[in-house]
Amino acid sequence: MLVLSRQRDESIFIGDNIKITVVDIRGDKVRLGIEAPTEIPVHRQEVYEAIQRENQRPAAEQTGVR
């Protein structure tokens, strides 16, 4: 894992087309702005994991696996 330090209004780039900007810092919370092409999905971790569980569910139901 790459760990970077950034201050408010500073950004990092991932490749040529994903920009992550520190929008605000309040106490122990950091607000990030993410600019990415529409074809690249961006989700919070808990949403991503819920999507993965939902996507695995139909396959498990077809094979009878639980």
Model description:
With 66 residues, the protein is an alpha+beta fold. It has a 3-stranded antiparallel β-sheet, with no helix packed on it. It contains 1 helix and 3 strands. The chain has one domain (11-63). The model has no long low-confidence stretch (mean pLDDT 91). Helix content is 29%, strand content 30%.
Series of H and E elements: EEEH
Name the beta content range: 25-35%
Number of helical elements = 1
Number of domains: 1
Physical arrangement of strands within the biggest beta sheet: 1-2-3
Spans where pLDDT lies below 50 across 5 or more residues: none
Question: Mind telling me the C-alpha Rg?
Answer: 17 Å
Distance between the termini: 33 Å
| Helix/strand class | alpha+beta
Overall geometric form: elongated
Give average pLDDT, whole number. Answer: 91
Q: How many DSSP E strands?
A: 3
> Which range best describes the helical content: under 10%, 10-25%, 25-40%, 40-55%, 55-70% or over 70%?
25-40%
Reported for the largest beta sheet, the result is: 3 strands, antiparallel
Q: In a few lines, what is going on in this structure?
A:
With 66 residues, this protein is α+β, with helices and mostly antiparallel strands.
What's the helix and strand layout?
Layout: E1 11-14, E2 18-26, E3 29-35, H1 45-63
Antiparallel strand pairs: 1-2, 2-3
Looking at this protein, list some descriptive labels.
66 residues, alpha+beta, single chain, 3 strands, three-stranded antiparallel sheet
